[in-house]
Amino acid sequence: FSLPPRQHRTKSGIALLYNEETNNTYDVCLKLTKEVLTIQKLDVVCTSESESPVNHRTVVLRRQATGGLGLSIKGGAEHNVPVVISKIFKDQVGKKVFFISLPQCGFGTGVHLLRTAGDEVTITVRYLREVPSFLKLPLGSPGPSTDHSRVSSPLFDSGLHLNGNNAAPSPPSPSANEPKYEKRWLDAVSLPLLMARVSRYNAGTDQLRSNCFEVFALDGASTNILQFCTAAESTDWLQAISTNINDLTRENIKIINKYCSSDDQIVHMGWACESPEDSAAGRTSAFKYLALRGPYFNIFSSPPIGAGDWGQAETTYNLCEVLFKVHKLWMAEDCWLQARLYLGLEHSPEQQDVESLCFSILVGHGQSHTFRVELATDLAIWEKSFQRAVFWEVQRIRSKSYMCSSLGNVLCFTIDFGSGFTCSEGNAKTALWRYKFSQLKGSSDDGKTRVKLLFKNAESNQIEMKELEFANLTAVLHCIHSFIAAKVASMDPLFMCSQSPPGNYMNT
């Protein structure tokens, strides 16, 4: 059955951003549009500032034997705020709050200058009427937090660097023309969603993160790890982002198909994670870009952007000679399973295993590929797309012939969409035998070159065996499967009603 097209999602909300390199976690605001995922970080900005020189003064400080200069600073250009004297200790300069006039000075630079300036230090300062908001609230969180796993405010005092006591700061005195500061969400990262990908797994492994995922843009930029409070919230965001990625993919496919021949149309393309067949060999999982286009199934290391990129596939297979197989799933009832897949309903974590959302492209010994997707809807799309691509390819070629041998004779074995199976001697047109698809009752093979096909004679109702030997047996068997599947599909009114020319993207 077919579904109405999904509409793109517009969404915003708060999440945690975890950086594996620094082991720090920050609150971030996520904004999702049709084409972009934007990550905003909380920062302090100056909303108004007077540059009147009235409040500027020059102060001479003498370094004490104990206690240093007797002040602490915080702020800095790297945080988009000025360097500020945040604490002045007893018996030192005075009990006021000053802004140090160090244009574009970073926090580390300010500390270094004050520590190495000698015994007598002359600085230009400006008096502040009130304590700026960034001295009161820690940066990196919209409010108080007891989560000690989060990073400390980068605007904490430098007191231990510049003085030797912990005296409390004095209350501010009133003044005028003070700059105003407030905390705002500022754009930090904007990720285009066209040909982007998402991942819930630790890089290169089958280890699933809990309530977390990453988003990777086409250019390699990423979100780092987005963490959510609940599995439901994580899944909702993951589905929303995936929906928008799929919408953009659908639009991109339509644009490409508009300029391609009917034999070279794209049915579906997108990211999937390939799992190595032999993990003991040290190979790790890697993301691949897959494309069903024309007569081929293509595997790319990176998405094809220009026309010339389509010839750079790592691997290309003939659609009719490969077999698509969904791995073990978490439900036995096929109808109920399909309904859940198409509705996008996810199974619970305790029901999930590594193979839950995997499919294989079976080609032959040592050539098959296993891929993992992120959502049940992705798995459903790939399954329906593969069925559709194979169907249209069989409709296009109508027949396929392979050379074979039987009892030392060279034969030609033909699979024809209209007439079924035909075997002739060499290139001769005279058929040695012919059977319809419905007459094939069974088969067996040695896994190498030989196959036994069992047909039911329409007149005698007796089973007749034909033993053939092929150089490429797996390709032949998969081709037989493709033609029979296409024949069955052509007799299914529901399937045929859902079909449209390859130039139109499927309704999923």
From TrEMBL:
Q: List the source organism.
A: Cyclopterus lumpus (Lumpsucker)
Gene3D superfamilies per record: 2.30.42.10, Pleckstrin-homology domain (PH domain)/Phosphotyrosine-binding domain (PTB) (2.30.29.30)
Keywords for this protein? Cytoplasm
Q: Where in the cell is it found?
A: Cytoplasm
> Where on the tree of life does the source sit, at the highest rank?
Eukaryota
The main place the protein resides is: cytoplasm
Q: Where is the Syntrophin C-terminal PH domain?
A: 399-491
Q: Name one GO cellular component term.
A: dystrophin-associated glycoprotein complex
Name listed for the protein in its UniProt record: Syntrophin, gamma 2
